[in-house]
Amino acid sequence: MTTGQQAAAPAQAQRIVLVDDHAIVRHGLKSILERESDLEVVGEASTAAEAAAVVERTRPAIVLLDLKLSTAADTEGLELCARLTQRHPDLAVLVLTTFLDDSLVVAAIHHGARGYVVKDVDTTELLRSIRAVARNESAFDSHAAAAMVRSMRVAPDRPKFTERELKVLGLLAHGLSNREIGADLYISETTVKFHVRNIMRKMDAGSRAEVVYEATKLGVI
Q1: pLDDT (tens digit, 9 = 90+) per residue, 2-53?
Q2: In angstroms, rounded to a whole number, what is the distance separating the alpha carbons of residues 165 and 157?
Q3: What is the biggest distance separating any 2 CA atoms in the chain, rounded to whole angstroms?
Q4: I want to staple 113 with a disulfide (CB 3.0 to 4.6 A). Which of 31, 83, 108, 200 is the partner?
Q5: What's the rounded Cα separation, in Å, for the pair 131 and 139?
Q6: Would you give the end-to-end CA distance of the chain in angstroms?
Q7: How many Cβ atoms from other residues are within 10 Å of residue 16's Cβ?
């Protein structure tokens, strides 16, 4: 078989660390994720200190993070999220929690999370969310998305966007990837990336999730 005829090497699985103070929850998540060929659980942690050490050692692409990691505080995971994303800028944190407070959804985004889903989400939606944050996209289940919208307050001033940027913003809000946005608007993926960068710069946003949040807050979408 020639080089040109050789089959492409399989894509490397996305490395995941599970952070939850309940072992039974981690076990259940691991059982679900182990069935997926493109996902691999490389570590687990039940406390913030353990999580920091495991992430440092395993260097995962994704962390599934519960906000409550002890009986002492309900939002210990927020501080951990901020520390992890500051130390590992490429790390995708997906909050997976029982808490659905509007302010927590917003706070999670501002602490660096790329997505937020509640634990009663079905398996298909959870896997979709994991793969979305792995692609540097935002991911919210219907409950979290509604909570985020309810928390918005329209600001008096807002950045100026071109007609094309507004269309890109609208598609971002629907969770489309760069490739899907390009197909919808009949432009290249590279052009989409250019528009997304400009939008993030205008909104002083550090992630796609924050772009959607700020755009909704400003009444742009």
Answers
A1: 444 454 445 689 999 999 999 999 999 999 999 999 999 999 999 999 999 9
A2: 17
A3: 65
A4: 108
A5: 9
A6: 53
A7: 25
Of 33-47, 132-146, 202-216, give the range with the top mean pLDDT: 33-47
φ and ψ at residue 62, rounded to 5 degrees: -135, 140
- Which amino acid belongs to residue 102? D
Structural tokens at position 118: 């509640």
Please give the angle made by the CA atoms of 52, 58 and 63, to the nearest 5 degrees. 60
The tokens of 90 are what? 């490429």
Residue of 103, 104, 115 whose CA lies nearest to 68: 104
**Percent of the chain beyond pLDDT 70?**
88
**What is the residue-wise DSSP string for 105-162?**
HHHHHHTT-SEEEETT--HHHHHHHHHHHHTT--EE-HHHHHHHHHT----S------
Which H helix or E strand runs over 211?
A: helix 208-217
Residues 6 or more apart whose CB falls under 8 angstroms from that of 181 comprise: 168, 171, 172, 192
**Total count of residues recorded for the chain:** 221
- Find residue 45's DSSP bridge partners: 19
Query: Which residues make beta-bridge pairs with 92?
Result: 62
| Calpha distance 220→42 (Å, rounded) | 40
